[in-house]
Each structure stands twice: as C-alpha cells, then as structure tokens.
Amino acid sequence: MRLKMRKFAWVALLAAALVGYATLLWKGPWWFDGAHLRDRNLQPADGVVITGFRTMIVALGVGVTAIVGLVYTHRNHQHALDQFQHARDKDREAADLTREGQVTGRYVEAIKLLAAQDTRADGRKLTKLMERIGGIYALERIMRDSEKDHETVVQVLAAFVRQRSPAPDPELPDSGEEPPGVSDDVQAALTVLGRRPKRKESQSLDLSFTALWRADLSGADFSGVNFFGAEMQHVNLTGACLRGARLGAAELTEARLKDADLRGAELVGRPYRVGAKLTADQLLAAIFDETTELPDTLSHDSEIKRSLEG
Questions:
Q1: pLDDT (tens digit, 9 = 90+) per residue, 186-242?
Q2: In angstroms, rounded to a whole number, what is the distance separating the alpha carbons of residues 71 and 69?
Q3: In the 3-class helix/strand/coil scheme, how is 125-175 assigned residue by residue?
C-alpha cells in the first residue's frame, strides 16, 4: 500500500511539473516582463523577447532533464553494482563453505590414516606405516592450504611424535644396546614440522621427553621448541634453527650441531638445573652467544669463554 502511495505521489508530482513547465512556456514572458509586452497585436520586438525567454526555458528544461537522467542512470548503475557485489559476496561465502567442507573432509581422512595401527593376522604383523606417512603428508597439505588449520595440524603432528616415540622411562635399567633410529613415520612428522610455514602460533611446539635417536633434523626450523628431556643421540641438527629452544636435560650425545643456531637456547634444565648432555666441541661447532643459557660444565670451558669474548 505504501509503495502504491509513493508511486502515485511521484506521478502526481511529475504531472504537476509538466503542467507548470508548459504554463511557464506559455505565460512566462508576460509573468516576467508583462509591463513591456503587448497582449494583442504583437510587434517584432515583442516576438524577440518572447522567443528568447521561451528558448531559455527550453534550454533550462533540457538541462534539468539531462541532470535527472544522469542521476537516475547513476542510481541504476550503483544499484547494479550493489547487486553485483552482493552476488559476489554470496558466491564467495558459498565457495568458502564448500572449501571448508572439503578441508574438513580431507582432515578427517588424514587423521584416519594417521591413526592407522599395526595389526596381526595369522601370527603375522600387518604394518600400516605407509598409511600413516600418507596421513602426515596429507596434513601438511592442509596446513599449507588453510592458515586457520595451521596450528591444529602442528599440534596433532607433535602429539603423534610424542605418542609414537616417547623417551624410555629413566627408572628402567639401561639395556646397554645402541638405540635404534626413529621410525619412518616419526621422521616424516618431524620433517613436516621442521619446514612448516612461518606463521604466528599461540602455543610452542612440545617435543619434550621424546626419543628422536638418529633423526635427521638438518636445516629444520625448531626455534622455540620444547625438547626438554628428549633423547637426541646422534641426531643430525646441522644448520638447524634452535633459537630459544628448550634443550635442558636433553641427551645430545654425538649429535651433529655444525652451524646450528643456538642463540637464546636453554641448555640448562629448570628447576633442577640439569644441563643438556653435549660436549664443548659440539657446542663450538654451532652458533651461540651470551644469550645461550649454558650449564656450568660448559660455561666455564676455556674455549667457549674465548669464543664468547671473540
């Protein structure tokens, strides 16, 4: 009803404007200059005045019509742009929902692969190693494609390493055997974690009390990672970034630390002041400075002191 009333009002206004404009063309010359114009027996001079006035009014009408047309065209154009932007927003929302659904489906399938457990059938062990590795690399793809899922994937892979390769109980007797290397799926998870995109993470990566024997972490970025109490014998950390990493109580016997960045790393355990197990020669092969927290056995070493002073 209100729409009909508005339409009627606009039609009435337009009709009144047209009547007024026609009346102005007809009577206008006498309204504005009636004292000098005759009503009858018009002379050439009267015709000049009347023609000039009416020409001015026609030009004015044309100008107003053009302005109204431009305003109307602009409004229609803006309305079309708004509709186009609205349609784009709807399409983007639909695409985002579709993408979210696809990512969720990929994530669920990757987690299923990651959780695949070795089974036994007819007395033989059936390994699911390749399925777990496939799940790890599927999670890496999700982490790179979806920034919002980055931290979830990182924490899942860290939990996988802690669960699949925990450090042995220190209270159990040492068998004296040379520790084996990490399994291929744990190595794959460590590789993915070490090359994850550089994004802000609200939680530090926790690999504490893990068994990482002989793992290849060369060139990896593990800055700020918690390796407290980790078993890292013979680990290859060549060129790795360990800035601000917690390495207190970590077993680093014969670990390769050449060009590893240990600036700001904690090599002293808290609160028990247990130092990481490594030699001065290992440390001297790495990059460190006064921000590196060293246990007493290393901080008092003459070669290390000389390196810090130089």
A1: 999 999 999 999 999 999 999 999 999 999 999 999 999 999 999 999 999 999 999
A2: 5
A3: EECCHHHHHHHHHHHHHHHHHCHHHHHHHHHHHHHHHHHHCECCCCCCCCC
Query: Minimal CA–CA distance to 136: which of 118, 112, 119, 117?
Result: 112
Place of tokens 């020669």: 281
Write phi, then psi, for 262 (nearest 5 degrees). -110, 15
If one counts every other C-beta atom within 10 angstroms of the C-beta of residue 133, the result is: 20
Q: Read off the pLDDT of residues 119-160 as tens digits, 9 standing for 90 and up.
A: 776 666 678 999 999 999 999 999 999 999 999 999 999 999
Beta bridge partners of 206: 226
> Which two three-digit tokens encode residue 238?
């060549």
Q: Which two tokens stand for residue 93?
A: 């929302």
pTM for the whole structure: 0.70
